[in-house]
Amino acid sequence: MRSMVKMGWLALLLAVGCAGRQDLETPDYEAIYDVPLEEMWPSVREYFTAANLPYREDRGSLVLETEWKQEFGGSKIAGYWHRYMVIGKRETPTKSKLWIIRITKSVNKALSQPGKELDWGIAAARTADSEGSGSLNLSPEDEAARLSFPVGENAFYMESGQGTRDLTMEWRVFRGIMPKLAKKQAVSAEQQVAKAPGAKEAPTFTECGQSILGLKKLAKAGGVLLLGELHGTQEVPRFIAQSVCQLVTAGMPVTVGLELPVENEERITTFLQSQGGEVDWLKLMEAPFWRSPYPDGRGSEAVANMLEQLRHLRAQGLDVAVFVYDHPKLSGQPREDALTKTVLSQVKAKPERFHLVVSGNVHPRTAKGLPWDKQYKPMGYLLKDQLDDVMALDMAYDSGTAWICAADTQGRKLDCGVKEAKGKDNGDRFFMHTWSSANKDGYHGVFYVGHVTASEPAVLKGLGNPNASAAPSPASGL
């Protein structure tokens, strides 16, 4: 009987191992361990210990909860924290499974529970104690919630939270511990990370945020995915960094194309290869681009933080590359031609990589013509004519704010600042969605980033000198 069970383990491992190496997408069904729950659980503890995710455990019920951790990427300004609740489930006397709930907290009020700010009665009242210590008289439940709050400089500003079952994490744990359970070390079901050329090692576990739905099925070697964004939000740069992290840790090398001036290529490459120290930040931020008199959102705090996150992934030995391709001295069709030439040279030089190219939402269109110029050929249209695999996604978002440059009421100059952005609520989960055919603008679908929040120019936040005080934010525009 025991030998039959071992053969079952081996067959399952072989099946999952092949799928893990050939398909970036996470299965949409549960991972079932062909082993009793009590025998599986010690390996669960070992996995989370090895992944540097400290936890507390309720040993009587086979449930553990990890400590709060800042969102992936070593962010300087992260406003997101998460923890995992891991619940052992008995499928049958001889089989088991895990439920893993990812709990996220954010400074963003978009995820806040309705009525959270309301005080429902005197039992929930919060008043200073009678001894004048400044502490609050809290109920036992409130005190427990306070003590389990995120730790760090953002902790006191957390506004909202959500809990979601994380099927991707469940499969990562399964692939990590099942080979050891089966005692077949030569058989590995772990997905292979995309290790950078020359890197001595790459991490077996990297936190990449909640899975972006629909991302991995669009990522192919040699493929080009064009994202048309609204500049000046916190969410798009985070979406890009999170996408890259999830792809490279699943085995796909990624090159990111950013709509920044080509004159900054060497400076950005140097920063990505650096240790990310104070001098490295100063050299990055010395470029005139960051101090444009009309900051349109591409030089935002969130973009600077995204570069730091990509640098952090590279520093771990993961295969991430970045190039810039804007030609700001040109305009109209000559600019589109120059953008296309620069992107095309990058793609053809590295056809084994997946290219994720981000820009304002005119350039990615794969259809000819604009409302004011029917003969206009956007970058996406020109690339599609010369490459086999080009897909363009337009940005979708819930209403909020963005840092936008727009003509003033007289139409004489640009007015840059925080402005309202009208969108449609499709939930708070990042996702990509494609249609059966392209629309009239040549977009094949959308990428959704949830509620949007303005991100101010990086120089207003003192980035480039981590010890400097942030400059005061202007009341309205620049």
Protein architecture, described:
The protein is α/β, with parallel strands linked by helices and 478 residues long. The protein folds into two domains: 2-182, no CATH class; 216-461, no CATH class. Helix content is 27%, strand content 22%. It contains ten helices and 16 strands. It has helices at residues 2-22, 37-50, 140-147, 167-182, 235-248, 265-272, 278-285, 301-315, 332-349, 379-386, and strands at residues 32-33, 55-58, 63-66, 69-70, 80-92, 95-106, 160-165, 224-229, 254-261, 320-326, 354-360, 390-398, 400-407, 414-421, 431-434, 445-451. Strands 1, 2, 3, 4, 5, 6 and 7 form a seven-stranded antiparallel beta sheet that branches. A seven-stranded mixed beta sheet has the order 10-9-11-8-12-16-15, with helices on both faces. A two-stranded antiparallel ribbon has the order 13-14. Strand 2 and strand 3 (63-66) form a beta hairpin. Helix 5 (235-248) packs parallel to helix 8 (301-315). The longest helix is centred in the N-terminal third of the chain and has 21 residues, at 2-22. The termini are far apart. Residues 1-22, 115-136, 152-158, 184-190 and 469-478 have low confidence and may be disordered.
SSE inventory with pairings:
Blueprint: H1 2-22, E1 32-33, H2 37-50, E2 55-58, E3 63-66, E4 69-70, E5 80-92, E6 95-106, H3 140-147, E7 160-165, H4 167-182, E8 224-229, H5 235-248, E9 254-261, H6 265-272, H7 278-285, H8 301-315, E10 320-326, H9 332-349, E11 354-360, H10 379-386, E12 390-398, E13 400-407, E14 414-421, E15 431-434, E16 445-451
Parallel strand pairs: 8-11, 8-12, 9-10, 9-11, 12-16
Antiparallel strand pairs: 1-6, 2-3, 3-5, 4-5, 5-6, 6-7, 13-14, 15-16
Helix pairs in contact: 1-4, 2-4, 5-8, 6-7, 9-10
